[in-house]
């Protein structure tokens, strides 16, 4: 089967990482091409067997149609050159361009949503464009049953039979050794989080909750891996709260298992998630989680089974849950064991079976 993936860039994001892993794995048995729309270096590689096509088209303003027209034309030409059996597009704006580019080509196309459908940060123009273009998709992939239900409610004219639940795969290497990789001394109890420093990840709330933890457990440490526009804002909050010795913001990591191997508890304070990959990778490492009850998080974090879930925005409840776990190795062991069992459903083999059994089911005549 010939498969063309389309994504804006292979930058440091969760959806981009999933695409790169799918492309590498599928290229062992299929002919795979990855097309990127914009200009930028690849943060994630796709392996030697995957063909890379870079359109290198920069879009600056929505009201300047010329780059958008160039992009649609260039993408259509790239798709036709590859003559695929399936086009697989990742992330909302790219999906819109891919659907427009695919008009008249006859190629089946699946568009993948990697977050909640009704996110408040989605521009009204983009939401309108999704409403117009998504009926053109052959199939639509979402990350959970709750998102599928949300999609059906928001877009009732699109047949729900076209919408499939395809979770992201979680690579499951042997559990990482429980060594302390966080830059602290001794056996300080440690909390970890990973993600892009943007408002939706809500890292300021995590730092504020951790300030309460530090009052009860002065030796506790928090490390947040990632980068983004709010990183310096969060760093400033760390200073305001006097947590410079307790909180570390080391930047991006391309070795998540190693980063996780030094942690006792994973924290997630997102306002919403599609499928929280960092949370699930922490679960695979046997690390229990504490987090806010938020869309996308509640689909995967079960209170008292693989971690603790507290009301959204309740800093006192979050800090209490963190303290409870940091003080109880036995509870961490119990919840962490359940967490590792839970993520077994998301192995690459299981997820690939869903893709090729339910989504990429037929080749083009």
Task: Describe this protein's structure.
With 365 residues, the protein is α/β, with parallel strands linked by helices. It folds into two domains: 2-169 and 347-359, Rossmann fold (3-Layer(aba) Sandwich); 190-345, Rossmann fold (3-Layer(aba) Sandwich), CATH 3.40.50.2000. Helix content is 38%, strand content 16%. β9 (221-225), α7 (231-240) and β10 form a beta-alpha-beta unit. α3 (92-102) runs parallel beside α4 (124-133), α6 runs parallel beside α7 and α6 (203-216) crosses α10 (315-326).
The helix/strand order is EHEEHEHEHEHEEHEHEHEHEEHHH
| Amino-to-carboxy terminus distance | 12 Å
Helix content: 25-40%
CATH class type of the largest domain:
Alpha Beta
Q: How many helix segments?
A: 12
Radius of gyration: 21 Å
User: In the CATH classification, which architecture of the largest domain applies?
Assistant: 3-Layer(aba) Sandwich
Read across the widest sheet, the strand sequence of neighbours is 3-2-1-4-5-6-7
Into how many domains do the coordinates divide? 2
- Biggest sheet details: 7 strands, parallel
| Poorly predicted spans | 178-186
Average pLDDT confidence is 91
What is the CATH H-level superfamily of the largest domain? Glycogen Phosphorylase B
Protein structure class: alpha/beta
* Tertiary shape: globular
- Annotated CATH topology of the largest domain: Rossmann fold
Strand content: 15-25%
The count of strands amounts to 13
């Amino acid at each position: 089967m010939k498969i063309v993936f389309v994504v804006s860039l292979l930058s440091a994001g969760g959806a981009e990482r999933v695409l790169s892993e799918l492309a590498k794995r599928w290229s062992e048995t299929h002919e795979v091409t990855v097309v990127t729309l914009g200009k930028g270096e690849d943060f994630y590689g796709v392996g030697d067997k995957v063909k890379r096509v870079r359109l290198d088209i920069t879009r600056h303003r929505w009201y300047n149609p010329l780059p958008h027209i160039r992009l649609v034309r260039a993408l259509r030409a790239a798709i036709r050159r590859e003559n695929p059996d399936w086009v697989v597009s990742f992330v909302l704006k790219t999906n819109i361009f891919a659907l427009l580019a695919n008009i008249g080509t006859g190629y089946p196309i699946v568009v993948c949503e990697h977050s909640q459908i009704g996110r408040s940060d989605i521009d009204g123009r983009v939401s309108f464009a999704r409403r117009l273009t998504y009926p053109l998709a052959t199939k639509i992939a979402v990350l959970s049953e709750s998102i599928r239900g949300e999609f059906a409610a928001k877009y009732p004219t699109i047949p729900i039979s076209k919408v499939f639940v395809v979770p992201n795969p979680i690579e499951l290497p042997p559990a990482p050794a429980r060594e302390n990789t966080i830059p602290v001394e001794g056996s300080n109890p440690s909390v970890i989080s990973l993600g892009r420093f943007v408002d939706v990840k809500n890292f300021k709330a995590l730092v504020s909750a951790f300030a309460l933890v530090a009052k009860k457990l002065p030796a506790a440490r928090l490390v947040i891996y990632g980068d983004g526009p709010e990183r310096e804002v969060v760093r400033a909050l760390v200073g305001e709260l006097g947590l410079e010795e307790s909180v570390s913001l080391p930047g991006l990591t391309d070795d998540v298992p190693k980063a996780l191997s030094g942690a006792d508890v994973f924290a997630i304070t997102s306002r919403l998630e599609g499928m929280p990959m960092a949370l699930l990778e922490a679960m695979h490492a046997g690390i229990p989680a504490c987090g806010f009850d938020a869309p996308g998080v509640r689909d995967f974090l079960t209170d008292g089974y693989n971690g603790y879930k507290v009301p959204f925005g309740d800093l006192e409840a979050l800090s209490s849950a963190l303290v409870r776990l940091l003080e109880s190795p036995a509870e961490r062991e119990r919840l962490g064991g359940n967490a590792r069992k839970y993520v077994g459903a998301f192995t690459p083999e299981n997820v690939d079976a869903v893709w090729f059994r339910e989504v990429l089911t037929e080749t083009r005549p």
